[in-house]
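Annex B.
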Amino acid sequence: MHTYWKIITLLFFCITINVSVSLAQGKHAAQAAQMATSQTPDIFNGYSLSTVTADQLSDADVSTIRSRLTASGISYDQAEQIALSKGMPAAEWQKLKARLLGTTSARATQSNSSNPVTVDSVKRHQEKDDYLTFQKQRITPEVFGASLFTTASLSFEPNLRIATPVNYILGADDELQINISGYQETNIRVTVQPEGTIFLPHVGTIPVAGLTVEQATSRIQAKMGQSAYPSLKSGQSKLVITLSRIKSIHITIIGAAKPGNYTVSSLATVFNSLFLCGGPGDINSYRNIELIRNNKVYKTIDLYQFLTRGDQQGNVPLQENDVINFPVYKERVTISGEVKRPGIFELKDKETLQDLLFFAGGFTERAYKASIKVKQVTDIERKIKDLPKTENATYEPQNGDEFEVGSILNRFENEVNITGAVYRPGGFEFTPGLTISGLIKRAGGLQENVFTGRATLTRTHVNGVKENITFNVSRVLNGINDVALVKRDSIHIAFENDFRSDSKVTILGEVRKPGQYAFKQNLSLKDVLFMAGGVTDAASSFNIEVGRRIVDQSLHVSVDSIAEVYNVNIHDGLEIENDKFVLQPYDIVTVRRNPGYTEQKRVTINGEVTFPGTYTIELKNERISSLIKRAGGLSPLAYKKGVFLTRKNTDADLANDQSIKTVQQKTGDTTTTQAIEGDSKANNRIAIDLEQVLKAPGSLDDYILQDGDIIQVLKVDPLVRISGEVLSPTKTGFVESESLNYYLTQAGGTTENARLSKIYVVYPNGHVSKTSNGFLGMFRSYPKIETGAEIIVPHKKIRRELTTGETIGLTSTIVSLLSLVIITITNIHK
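Capsule biosynthesis protein: predicted structure tokens.
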């Protein structure tokens, strides 16, 4: 016993150590994975790679990812592993990698091939595209004027294909085209040097910087006329000077979305630079933009003048070293509701609510103009104020004000309404002295099927309480009790049919168009038979039944009766025995079927018979043996054990299947659901024991045929098929003396997942035989194999593996039980 106690103690110690080590290793692995994840830089800018595609990323996003890859020193192979671990599909990574490697070069090549522009121009277009994407994410769409810098069609790029401006100031890097024609001719292209001069052969150096083109032309002509080109002085030659290439200037922009130093064309204007820098920043002004030249404010630009009036007075040309400053805005307000352009607007000092309404496009058609609600911000809290229309021109909004323009009430102030049996129902203008009869006349008068005995007038009082007033339409039209109307009165005049049920008669049975038909006065049985398209060929001419509701049981029938039933005979041409049989509302006419009428029923026999094909059933109880005899008997190749019948599901079969499913749903038993569905899909394939049928015609195995039956007689198949959980599913020749194990061996044997106790055999006629496991599975008996059969080895049921938590829980339970055993044994030995 002492030795036994030592063994248990040692076992408990080993299990405890094993569990502790496993838990420690799992915790260490989790911490290592978490540390690795936290140390990996976010090179993908926080995108959800499992949902985003490479095509959804803008060029700016791709450029950002490329920069982060370079800065972090991560290779593309390492980046691929990170992307795949975050859920990006491999195909999407290949697309993204292609963009990371080829975006810049592809864009530059395309630009250079389409238009011979400078590298600076390509870069500027690239920055423009990237910035448009950035701006759409950054700027709130409500800010009035922000859309000016997020619309790709608005670029404000300077037009370089224009005539040389006469007031253009020349400077370094300007290129001049000098053309002399007449007595002397020459073409000279010169560039203004950084010193502000140009050099002409045989003329010398001429200073031109700071001069306009017109002034420079006069100076150059004078210099050239005094030297090598005297014909210019005498007028025998003419001089024309144009700009062949303009210089670039340097400007500085502050307070913008993209502040910085910019190099622009010397023809650029203020608006060109505004778009280049992305417009004002989030907190900067749209209305007090300063153009600073020589350290002084040269011009103040108000973008609202351009946005609301198209005024470009502030769009002046830029000069070297100009500074554009976007100061912080002083006052912004919000207006919403029934205005044409709701949003956030910037206001200047002394501007009023009327100016704000102008910027917002004015009121909409449904605006409530009498008063505007404004929510204000004080030093302590917020407050609300109602501004009457008279204060629009005087109220000066304060920073943070929120204006709300309401809508008018969805009702008419002077409407009366009439509905029902009038020719023009609807709303009409209320006028003093208007009465019920007057409103009926305005509505076109009464329709023919009007109910004049009673109508209703609904009146809504000032306190909202509704009052119902009834009147007689005929009396009112005759001037009796004609009620004067008030605003918002509503009249309803009913139709006669409103007080009648929708009377119908029903015809069923052997007619071409059974159904319900509208009842009419003096509708006869012959009429409704004609409306139903007449009787079918299967109709009985001696049994037409009419069922009628009982109106008064005490007068005609006993109290036990619930309907009156009439039987009428019919002859050829819809001639009725009682030609004047008149129907009543809700009568049900039933045309019975002729008991001697039977439509042909057909069955089909295919395969190994002498005359396969479709046959008409002769007798109600015709059987399989009779059909085979009519088909000329079996052919020499027919396999008697390979005959089956396919029968369509009848309505009774479908109803029975549905009943079984309903019971299973209530009881939770679904063991045969798949079998029922399989039978439905297989169209009820029935195995036939043809040997027994031919041996004993008319027996229970010799089934009675039904319409649509298909009998298939197979030919002898000398092979046996083995499928399912075998190493090599195959077909092999039938050997009569061999058992099932022989055929499994021919297929390479069973797999480790084979369920040997459930092996079954499907015979050619569709019959199935399963393995018999005997007592406790000790005396297993496999089905007999026949030629043409199929052996199916099913798969084992998949058992769910324990999760980590379940494993730990089970281990803890085992340890606890072992501890209890040890304690018990220890107590016993004390």
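DSSP finds 20 helices and 37 strands in the chain. Confidence is low (pLDDT under 50) at residues 17-40, 103-128, 131-141, 669-682. Further annotation is deferred to the next reporting cycle.
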